[in-house]
Amino acid sequence: MKIAIVILNWNGKKLLEQFLPSIINFSISDAQIYVADNASSDDSIRFIEKNYPQVTIIRNKENGGYAKGYNDALRSVKADIYGLINSDIEVTENWLKPITSEFQQNKNTAIIQPKILDFKNKSKFEYAGAAGGFIDFFGYPYCRGRIFNHLETDQNQFNDITDIFWASGACFFIRATIFHQLNGFDEDYFAHQEEIDLCWRTQNLGYTIKYVGTSCVYHIGGATLQETNPQKTFLNFRNNLLTILKNVPKKRLFFVIFSRLILDGIAGLKFIFELKPIHTFAILKAHLSFYQNFNKFLRKRKKLIKKQHYNLHVSVVWQYFVLGRNKFKKLH
Question: Which of 40, 166, 273, 290 is positioned for an S-S bond with 241, CB 3.0–4.6 A?
Answer without folding.
Answer: 290
